[in-house]
Recover the amino acids of this structure.
């Protein structure tokens, strides 16, 4: 049995004040830098994509996308600009990185969504939001970054068990039955000559439009 968790928050704005010092917050305001983010569908989509493809460093939030995902890069840059930031696009050998330059925002994203694939999670202000549109936007961003859609079947794979269970809960909110199965990995793989020890992963699959609400 999977519970259908009821929404209990209607947060409309995410303040960045807790992620800097009092002086740093004053400086950010004086420079006209964003000191909060609206929690709307664009922001939820952005956070979903970060959970799928993002990480942080001290001075930036970064999204790592494939060379073939030019359209996704453009949409991402557009949503970043809506939040008041100027995206920086970096062409790497095999990927494209989109960066949001900031010292405050990386701390916020790391706190809300986790850092590194095994620690990624759905922010609680999305998991328990009353507006199902926010949930749908988050899932859309996450799936566009790290999912596969065939017909009405959607599947994602993650090494974060917490994230897999939360994705299942989000789907239950929307009336979708999501199943989880674990893939145990024993083999060691090599990528471009580097020895990679893979971790166990969790796949979550669900169908839309076939289950009653």
């Amino acid at each position: 049995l999977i519970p259908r968790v009821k929404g209990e928050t209607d947060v409309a704005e995410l303040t960045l004040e807790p992620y800097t010092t009092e002086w740093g917050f004053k400086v950010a305001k004086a420079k006209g830098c964003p000191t909060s983010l609206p929690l709307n569908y664009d922001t939820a989509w952005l956070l979903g994509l970060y959970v799928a493809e993002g990480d942080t460093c001290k001075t930036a939030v970064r999204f790592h996308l494939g060379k073939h995902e030019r359209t996704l890069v453009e949409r991402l840059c557009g949503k970043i600009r809506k939040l008041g930031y100027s995206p920086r696009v970096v062409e790497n050998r095999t990927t494209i990185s989109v960066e949001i330059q900031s010292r405050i925002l990386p701390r916020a994203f790391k706190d809300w969504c986790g850092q590194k694939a095994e620690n990624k999670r759905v922010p609680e202000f999305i998991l328990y939001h009353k507006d199902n549109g926010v949930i749908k936007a988050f899932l859309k961003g996450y799936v566009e970054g790290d999912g596969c859609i065939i017909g009405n079947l959607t599947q994602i794979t993650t090494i974060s068990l917490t994230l897999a269970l939360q994705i299942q809960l989000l789907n239950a909110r929307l009336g979708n039955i999501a199943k989880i199965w674990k893939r145990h990995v024993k083999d060691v793989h090599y990528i471009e000559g580097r020895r990679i020890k893979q971790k166990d992963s969790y796949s979550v699959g669900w169908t839309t439009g076939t289950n009653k609400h």
In short: The first helix runs from residue 22 to 30.
